[in-house]
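User: what does the whole thing look like in 3D?
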Amino acid sequence: MEVGQLQRSFIEYMSSLFNEGFLDAQFSQLQQLQDESNPDFVVEVVSLFFEDSERLLNDLTMALDQPNVDFKQVDAHVHQLKGSSSSVGAQRVKNCCVPFRSVCEEKNTEACLRCLQQIKQEYLLVKNKLQTLFELEQQIVAAGGAIPMMQ
Amino acid sequence: MGMVAAEQQFHVLAVDDSLIDRKLIERLFRTSACQVTTVDSGSKALEFLGFQENDHNHPNPPCVSPHNHQEVEINLIITDYCMPGMTGYDLLKKIKESSSFRNIPVVIMSSENVPSRINRCLEEGAEEFFLKPVRLSDVNKLKPHMMKTKCKSFHEPEKIVTKENQESPEIEKVPSEQSQPQPKTELDTEQIQQIQQSQGNNNKRKSIEEGLSPERTRPRYSSLTTV
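Assistant: Here's the predicted 3D structure for the full assembly of 378 residues, as structure tokens:
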């Protein structure tokens, strides 16, 4: 594919991620903070988000699998997940955290498990989307083009 | 970034237990031409500052304090509220109770919009309270706070001049803020910032007055004379 076409599909793909609510304005902030002195900033921060989320989703799975669920601990994990998803602009993951915390407060294990399933699904979706976006970026760079700025 | 002269550079100490957020804050301030040191806990922040626990027990420290002066000049501390162990609020209190460090502006960040928490921090002397994630526009608002720490250093003998310099912009700001609507239960970011500003100003004025008493500012000067 030629550079211009790659750049157009990049813009189109980015727009769809915003329109479908996978990403919010915070992701644009990350992009703004990336410059020549820090060319990999977005990928670095998003990779940290992947690591963080996977650890927390694992911890949550284990915590909710206990016979006596420690809801305080569950809430602490969800709180962290909410923090990191909002810091990278993973809006749909972040949005799942709000109902999760309220059913946690109600000590409703069944509802917590449903929330966990939903949040896992949203996480995998956005991870997939972001990886596709980064691959597209790499293709543009490899073809000698510049990453289009979204504004 | 490279255009700012070294002596004008502000040094920010950022405290957050989340690595993602430390990265983010570091970048935000670097983009604003600040030097940034990040630590992952309140106790490490105190360690970095060279804080001694018994500091506030000495209301009249000797002219040259051998242990508890500010070793590195820090122009701003920005700390997360919710951290395991020492919270951002605990850190704020320690800083404001310390005769050596209370002049450093402290900004608290939190992902949760809890008005009572915000008020508590502002009453304790925090300059601002930011909702996370922190934006470049938030960081840009902090320049005047950091400038104050520099102004004090430059105008040390002329305290009254410094006072006037610091107070005049606030007096201008007050009328517009008094007309702001009072917050309801649901607060959006903008409203929060308005409350913060109006309350922050009261606190600022208080802290400036405190800063004028000689025994409280002396440690700072003594560290400067060694330069």
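In plain terms: Chain A has a mean pLDDT of 96. DSSP finds six helices and no strands in chain A.
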